[in-house]
Amino acid sequence: MPHRVPLGSVLRRPRRMPLGSPLQLLLLACSFALAAYAGIRLLAGDRLGVALWIVGAALLHDLVLVPLYSLADRAVTRGLGAAGRRGWTLYARVPAMLSGLLLLVWFPLISGMVDEPYRSATNLSPDGFLTRWLLISAVLFGGSALLLAWRLRRAAKHRPPASH
Q: What confidence category does residue 65 fall into, taking pLDDT thresholds of 50, 70 and 90?
């Protein structure tokens, strides 16, 4: 029979808010202050453009990218087969997310859309961003595959032999 707590003792006990340590509160306050400063500086120029960009990015993410993430994740999960191997999807999710983030950041240079402005601003050649992104993505997926193989091998060594 489960242990039951009297209702009166639950109702009389004051609730404490989980605030965290003083260091956590200080870091949270600093992050809010930094975000407020960045927001004020960002909105000082083109308020309408920034607001449109934020709304557009939120709509693009929620209406286009999230369904694509979900479909890709479902395809990877189904591709790996049985429910016992669903934990393996993490080894595809993490490198895919990092590779996608790098693509998002470097897309203008990877696509060649800003070659001349980049060259004139930095005096550097924009060539090679696609190659570097592909190499980084390959290293991420390869490293993830090696980590999975290593963990599977280690788990197999520590598994007791099957008795007949």
A: confident
Cα 47 from Cα 117, distance rounded (Å): 24
C-alpha 48/C-alpha 36 separation (Å) is 18
Q: Could you give phi then psi for residue 31, rounded to 5 degrees?
A: -70, -40
Is 80 in contact with 89 (CB distance < 8 Å)?
yes
Burial of 57 (0-12, 13-18, 19+ CB in 10 A): exposed
How far, in Å, CA of 145 to CA of 96, rounded? 12
Alpha-carbon gap, residue 32 to 22, rounded angstroms: 15
Biggest distance spanned by C-alpha atoms of the chain: 76
pTM over 0.85: no
Work out the average pLDDT over 38-42.
84
pLDDT band at residue 131, thresholds of 50, 70 and 90?
very high
124 phi/psi in degrees, rounded to 5:
-120, 155
CA 7 to chain CA centroid, Å, is 42
